Amino acid sequence: MELNKRNLLISLAYVVPALIFMLVLIGYPLFYNVKISFQHLDLMSLNNPDIAFAGLENYRKVIGLDSFHIAFKNTFFFTFWSIFLQFTIGFALALFFNMKFRLAGFLRGLTLVSYLVPIVITSLLFKFMFNQSVGIINYILLSIGFVDQPIEWLTHPELAMWSVIIANVWVGAPFNMMLLSTGLSSLPDDIYEAASIDGANKFKQFMYMTLPMLRPVIMIVIMMGFIFTFKVFDLIFVMTAGGPVNATEVLSTLAYKLSFDQFNFSQGAAASNILFLILFIVSLIYLRMVRSDEVM
Amino acid sequence: MGRSKELILSIVGIIIVGALLFPIYWMIVSSFKVQGEIFQMPPTLIPNDWYVEGYTSQLSGALGRSFINSLIVAISSMAIVVVLAIPASYGLARYPVPGKKWMILFFLVTQMLPVTVVLTPLFILFKKMALLNSLAAPILATATLGIPFSVLILRTYFLNAPKELEDAAMIDGCNRFTAFLRIMIPISYPGIIVSATFSFLFAWGDLIYSMTFISNSAMWPLTAGVYNSMGKYGIQWNNLLSFATITVLPVLAMFIVLQRYIISGLTNGAVK
């Protein structure tokens, strides 16, 4: 369609309302967050219009915090193990449900319920199940003789981290499975038949055919997993609030605490901008991978 | 596939799904147990005494009020998303809008934003607009989750809709806008259902915006109510879990009715 003046105005009329809404409620806040990260904004100066430029001081201070180092390390630990486990479990489930038995599609769909449950409820549920005295997980472990003392899941530093990872994997694995299933179902059947005739066993077919052909889908699943896991907030905030001490503190919970517990808005902004910068770089790499054929 | 293999796979499949969904079952049955039975070892898979006060005593109070608040937030947010995202996605699919590439990139990036980046600025913005402690704050904030998702999903529906239908409608006397209203929107309804469903779910599941922008407990949606009860009740698990069950029920109901659309939204939303 040719872009004359009339068409230009009409096309803008369709797009502009949504764009303005997003620019006001996301674009401006993004800009504002960068701005206050270079100032000294706290509860005292919130109503004071003259806020001095602070240069990189907030970033220097935040990066110097012990809790930042811990949160930085924890965020990567949480992300790595969440993705590793949810991908492996999701892949195993996708392969299982890809065997064409009659209930497969129905059962596969059902697993997605866990992905849709509001995160605060998931967190509550796992808090309940990991609870030291009433939790069913300790009961099961005790009754099969795996342990002989109830485990302090959420109050032991290392185990608290694994508890939030397990809860996160429960949310993410079915989603990984769904995407991988879609990928698996798009693979052509006939080459597998040819491979069986040529004597390739299932394992070889998986290693030398399925994995290479699924490579683009696998990359997308892992990159998306990274983006959505790395910015985790609700789950940890509700389950452990970053504790015990800061054993499960991640960058987003640290940023929240700096802003809304200590009311140091500028340092909170600096911390969340660091988180955003990492995500932004990964997102651009991801978009480059996915969008090479379309618009971008 | 042989009969016995089919049977074995079905049984294994049912066991897997049962194990995965067990936490939800556990939440529901535990919400019907008296406090003593929750602490009982070995735990019971079905309550001995059915305790319903977690529901009956709370429904007239905080639980009922929060349910209404959640509905208002989720439905309003969904309405804003649908009204804004349908024309925007159509415009981006059909017109050579200037700066289109950047707009699409902007919508994509907003989906990947960590919530803490916009939280403080939104708090200050809503404070200036006197929207703190009103449902408008979480409604507006959660609509920003639904809009980018919906614009990107719906755009692919409009891109794939046959252009000939639109042209035919225009020959029959529609202008482009009425053709959009009467032809394009109806044939893209599966996409619109996906977008409406997810906008509803995003807003329904929101905790952080409601919790940060609303301090008045009478205005809390279910999620904020559950979160705050966790600290307050401490270990009144049955009441807390009935709160949680009520929060999950609409999601389960939507899943049963709209499963096809939800699955297509998840797979398309991710890869496209």
Characteristics:
A: 296 residues; MetI-like fold; 13 helices; B: 272 residues; mainly alpha; globular
Notes on the protein architecture:
The complex is a heterodimer of chains A (296) and B (272). Chain A has helices at residues 5-37, 57-64, 66-98, 104-111, 113-116, 119-130, 136-143, 157-185, 190-197, 202-230, 234-239, 251-260, 265-291. Chain A is mostly helical. Chain A has a single domain, classed as MetI-like fold, CATH 1.10.3720. Chain A is globular, with a radius of gyration of 24 Å. The model of chain A has no long low-confidence stretch (mean pLDDT 88). In chain B, helix 1 packs across helix 13 (237-271), helix 3 crosses helix 13 and helix 7 packs antiparallel against helix 10. Chain B has one domain: Orthogonal Bundle (MetI-like fold). Chain B has 272 residues and is mostly helical. The model of chain B has no long low-confidence stretch (mean pLDDT 88). Chain B has helices at 3-31, 35-38, 53-59, 62-94, 100-111, 115-128, 136-160, 163-171, 176-187, 189-205, 208-213, 222-233, 237-271. Chain B starts with a helix and ends with a helix. The longest helix of chain B is centred in the last third of the chain and has 35 residues, at 237-271. The interface between A and B is large, with 96 and 94 residues.
State the gist of this model.
The complex is a heterodimer of chains A (296) and B (272). Chain A is mainly alpha-helical and 296 residues long. Chain A is built from 13 helices and no strands.
